[in-house]
Amino acid sequence: MFSNRHATGGGGSGGGHGKGHGMGIMEHLDRIREEYNSVNTQLGQQRQELEKLSIEREQMQRQFMMYYEMSLSMNAEFMKQNEVNKKLSTVLQQVITLLPPDQATTASAAFERAKHVTQADLNQAMMGNSQAQAMALLQGQLGMQLPGNPLMNPAFANPAAFAALAQANSERANSARPRSASGKPEEREAKRTKIDPDEDEGGNIDVEVDEPSGSGQTNGHEKKPARADSGRESAHSVASSGASTPGIPKAPRNPFEAMLGVPTGGAGGRIPPNLAANPALLTSFDPHAQARLLAAAGMVPTNGKPPYSYSVEGTSGPRVTNFPADALTAPGTPNTLKKIDELPHGDVVCAVTVARDRERVFTGGKGCVKVWSLPSSSSSTPSSSTTRTPLHSLDCLRDNYIRSVRLLGDSSRLFVGGEASSIAVWDVQEQKLLCELDSEVQAVYALCLSSDEKRLFACGSDGKVFVWDTHNHQKIATLNGHSDGASCVDLSFDGLTLWTGGLDNSLRAWDIRELKESSKIEFAAQIFSLGCSPRDDWVAVGMESTIVEVVSPTQPEKYQLHMHESCVLSLKYAHSGNWFVSTGKDNAVNCWRSPYGANLVNYKETSSVLSCDISLDEQLLVTGSGEKKATVYEVGYTSTSAL
């Protein structure tokens, strides 16, 4: 009886208690799970904060090391100068005792005066050394040596330079996208200049080069091809079977290397390994960050904008160009570009030329030159590019890309050169091919007519320059000099000198009367474009290294312009000689004041700008781009007349 009662009672009571206890355990488990998830989330946040603090600590340690090196450098320099002063004072005192009494008295007084240095003397000394400090900074001595080196550049004794460095690094890290770079030589061995109409949105030009690690009156701005035996690469890409391209030797990664003649990075041009992983510190080796650093350090008067024009004289280092007061406001100086028309060529436009009467423009693409009418006045309403049709279409060069077109003054004949061995001569009025001039080279990169239009000069892919008679179509001479392809050509203002630029990094002058080379200028990078001033002997040269240089055979100085961000593909002087235009793979159209390079207009298109031309009255600018079209701009001036 007892056992039955206990069994019944115990079973009923135990079942109810077990159920309640089980529910309590589940609640505890759920609560523990929630708390665990919460703690895990907080742990993740703490880890992120820890990583941020670690990065900040690393940056602070690097900054501390920079200041530590500055302190060591300043102490060492102070001790050195102190010892030098002591020794010089001893020598002077000994020399003074050897002087006659009257001279000794004067020398002693001067010696005592020299011991007293005023603030004005210090300011004058600092102004005198500012250029030397600026050049030291440009050479890459930015205090980024490895720890423990007490011989840091004395330029960093100026605290303003360090503050500017921190600001430049911060701006660069926050605003600029890092550029990709391959660490494998085989991935960088070929630099190709190509136009591939089969890629992306139809024919963006792709000039593969090694990437380096707004206008205003002040000197600041707002904001190959694989080697073959001969010939420059096909404009159609590597898939083009009929053309190949000479190689581009490695150009300086930093634009200032060409100016200074030495590597600009620390440690012989190589970035220290412990800095390679920090983009913010790597900006110290970037020319644009260096320019911002100089401007922020107050070493050049740029109104807060980095300088872009430098003058170089002889073997001295470059210095920031001082523009005249009317650099942007003189009569005939353009200040705006207004798009008034688009010409849908249908293929990448590698060559353009405007007729002298300004009624027609000729655009060269792949295998044909198209002739377009231009608006009768700049105020005409631009036509829609979808409805625009050419007047004529001239089939040329057997479906090869056209690199250059030249038109006679009366618009009667057109000369067409490109990625073919022959130069096509067309009768524009009759729209028929008159003849073909066989140059016996793989490609003809550029053409130029003499001032009397009796001679045609053609640049060959093998480096030769051919001279043709435009009337009887006979070859007159062959000018040998370039060791690699001759890429561009223009005639001097007096019509007596022919200037050619080459892929061998040389600019050569030829005496037209004697048909021989008269001079040569070597550059640090391949020359892609050039233009001669119609008013004087200045020659503007556009290079693969993004620099535009303006040189003269009679002037001791030259100018170097740093605004393009990629290779300079075309260049053209206005007929007045007051200004010129350069275009590049960076989609930029820049108008410059000649010769010192004040930037008048900085315009950005949406694709690489391959060619350009300016009308005779300087009212129109036409560009050809990788977007398969040509664009017509109206040039706006600071005065009522361009000439």
From TrEMBL:
Residues 29-63 form a coiled coil. Keywords: Coiled coil, Nucleus, Repeat, WD repeat. SMART domains: WD40 (SM00320). WD repeats lie at residues 437-478, 479-520, 561-592. Residues 8-23 have a biased composition (Gly residues). It holds the Pfam family WD40. One of its GO terms (cellular component) is transcription regulator complex. GO terms for biological process: negative regulation of canonical Wnt signaling pathway. It is found in: Nucleus. Residues 197-211 have a biased composition (Acidic residues). Residues 24-134 form the Groucho/TLE N-terminal Q-rich domain. Residues 184-196, 220-235 have a biased composition (Basic and acidic residues). InterPro entries: Groucho/TLE_N, Groucho_enhance, WD40/YVTN_repeat-like_dom_sf, WD40_repeat_CS, WD40_repeat_dom_sf, WD40_rpt. Gene3D superfamilies: YVTN repeat-like/Quinoprotein amine dehydrogenase. Its main location: nucleus. Residues 1-24, 168-256 are annotated as: Disordered. GO terms for molecular function: transcription corepressor activity. The keyword Nucleus applies. PANTHER family: PROTEIN GROUCHO, TRANSDUCIN-LIKE ENHANCER PROTEIN. Belongs to the WD repeat Groucho/TLE family. This is Groucho/TLE N-terminal Q-rich domain-containing protein. It comes from Mesorhabditis belari.
